[in-house]
Design goal:
34% of the residues lie in helices and 15% in strands. It is of the alpha+beta class. It has one domain. Strands 1-2 form a two-stranded antiparallel sheet.
Length: 79
């Protein structure tokens, strides 16, 4: 593997998949003597899309005044 003139290097797909380095993952470079390690950045991790959705739903609860049985009857066409 070779570093480009712009200082870029491609992380092989197998390594990205094994380590969970998805697009837009923030990483840090750790210098350890003469070695360099790439690690996921702990300081800038954004919540996942699912976590953001759950937070949004919890912050804005619905205003439905129906019981679970009433809702289930509607979904089954029993109303």
């Amino acid at each position: 593997m070779r570093i480009t003139s712009k200082g870029q290097v491609t992380i092989p797909q197998a390594v990205r998949e094994q380590t969970g380095l998805l697009p837009n993952t923030e990483v840090d470079f750790v210098v350890d003597g003469g070695d360099v390690r790439i690690v996921k950045s702990a300081a800038t991790r954004r919540p996942s899309r699912g976590a953001r959705t759950v937070r949004l739903l919890r912050a804005n609860p619905g205003r439905v005044r129906m019981t679970t049985d009433e809702i289930m009857a509607l979904t089954r066409g029993e109303a």
